[in-house]
Amino acid sequence: MNRDSRLSGILHVLLHMAQADGPVTSEVLAQAMTTNPTVIRRIMAGLREAGYVRSEKGHGGGWTLSCRLDQVTLRDIYQAIGKPTLLAIGLRDDNPQCLVEKAVNKALADSFAEAEALLLKRFGEVTLADLNKTFAAGYDNRINHMAAHAQS
């Protein structure tokens, strides 16, 4: 089953950008996501249109954040990248007149709608700053652990 990992990938990129001291090129971001720079530019275009990033051309150019991490949620980013499908399960529609198929599809469609609403609600509660704090705490713990290990 193919899964759409754009949201996860772009969140990864945004956190890298938050750590950068200046613009980050599409090439560098593509390496972080193990993809092609063209893919990065395509995804970043939606974020630029939404006002979350900006790009500068030429020597020393690249992508920079143009938003505060505490004011942008996972839902904002999800919407900016085109609202990819959240659930990979589909409905059968081989025989639309079949009453069993109708009953199954209604139950599944209602459940999917509830699950998506809950997921989008949660996305709206988590900011990029929250992700950055989680990343920073894990990074600090790893550095402290490595330092303590090196001293022993």
UniProtKB/TrEMBL annotation:
Gene3D superfamilies: Winged helix-like DNA-binding domain superfamily/Winged helix DNA-binding domain. InterPro entries: Tscrpt_reg_Rrf2, WH-like_DNA-bd_sf, WH_DNA-bd_sf. GO terms for molecular function: DNA-binding transcription factor activity. It holds the Pfam family Rrf2. One of its GO terms (cellular component) is cytosol. This is Rrf2 family transcriptional regulator. It comes from Devosia soli.
